[in-house]
């Protein structure tokens, strides 16, 4: 894995994004294990607690568990579960179009290690972890370019990847975030709302 490790990568991303202007939110991450069957990487957990659900340049959305007050703890990861269930079904369907072709990455569901999505954009690109490794902090990022039936791998975590995209260091970064849609780098998108309230890119 490349990069500075989860803490260093998150610090770099935080320098780019600045102060979110609100105190961190406590999330019961053990619910992720119960709902998804795996714990999520530490940089993602720290990012969500600090920033919530974020949209970059009105384009790329980081999908977070529900932070809305009043939502039962047992349901906070339902949106992330459904998001990934739908993407897994899409990926399986795409593989079915060419059954003899190579399957570079498996769908995450049902109950197997594969691509677990944490973001998408308006161009129908899905930003995932390859969950093959036992340690979530060793999961590389894989971008499923749905429209092109291609996969781009980044040997680093979520925070490292987002920093590389925002600075233009990642190849094809301009294709992943359309900065002309909104000059503002990022905004919280109903940070205490459920992921299923948006985005509408899948």
Q: How much of the polypeptide forms β-strand, as a percent range?
A: 15-25%
**Structural class by sheet pairing and helices:** alpha+beta
| Helix-strand topology string | HHHEEHEEEEHHE
User: How many individual β-strands?
Assistant: 7
Number of helices: 6
Radius of gyration: 16 Å
> Can you give the mean pLDDT?
89
What distance separates the N and C termini?
Answer: 29 Å
Strand order of the largest sheet: 6-5-4-3-2-1-7
- What fraction, in percent, of the residue positions are helical? 25-40%
List unreliable stretches of 5+ residues.
Answer: 191-202
Overall shape: globular
Largest sheet: 7 strands, antiparallel
Structure characterization notes:
- The protein has six helices and seven strands, in the order αααββαββββααβ.
- With 202 residues, the protein is an alpha+beta fold.
- The chain has a seven-stranded antiparallel β-sheet, covered by helices on one side.
- β1 and β2 form a beta hairpin.
- The longest helix is centred in the middle third of the chain and has 20 residues.
- The C terminus is likely disordered.
List the helices and strands and how they pair.
Elements: H1 5-17, H2 30-36, H3 42-51, E1 54-56, E2 60-62, H4 78-97, E3 115-120, E4 125-130, E5 141-145, E6 150-154, H5 158-166, H6 173-176, E7 186-188
Antiparallel strand pairs: 1-2, 1-7, 2-3, 3-4, 4-5, 5-6
């Amino acid at each position: 894995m490349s990069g500075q490790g989860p803490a260093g990568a998150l610090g770099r991303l935080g320098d780019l994004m600045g102060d979110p202007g609100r105190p961190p939110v406590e999330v019961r991450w053990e619910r992720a294990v119960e709902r998804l069957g795996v714990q999520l990487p530490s940089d993602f957990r720290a990012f969500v607690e600090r920033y919530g659900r974020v949209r970059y340049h009105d384009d790329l959305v980081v999908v977070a568990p529900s932070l809305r007050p009043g939502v039962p703890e047992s349901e906070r990861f339902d949106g992330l579960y459904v998001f990934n269930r739908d993407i897994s079904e899409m990926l399986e369907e795409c593989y079915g179009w060419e059954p003899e072709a190579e399957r570079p990455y498996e769908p995450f569901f049902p109950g197997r290690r594969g691509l677990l999505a944490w973001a998408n954009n308006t161009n129908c690109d899905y930003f995932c972890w390859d969950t093959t490794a036992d340690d979530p902090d060793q999961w590389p990022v894989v971008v499923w370019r749905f429209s092109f039936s291609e996969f781009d791998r980044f040997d680093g975590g979520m925070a490292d990847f987002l920093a590389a995209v925002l600075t233009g260091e990642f190849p094809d970064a301009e294709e992943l975030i359309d900065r002309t849609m909104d000059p503002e780098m990022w905004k919280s998108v109903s940070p205490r709302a459920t992921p299923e309230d948006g985005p509408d890119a899948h």
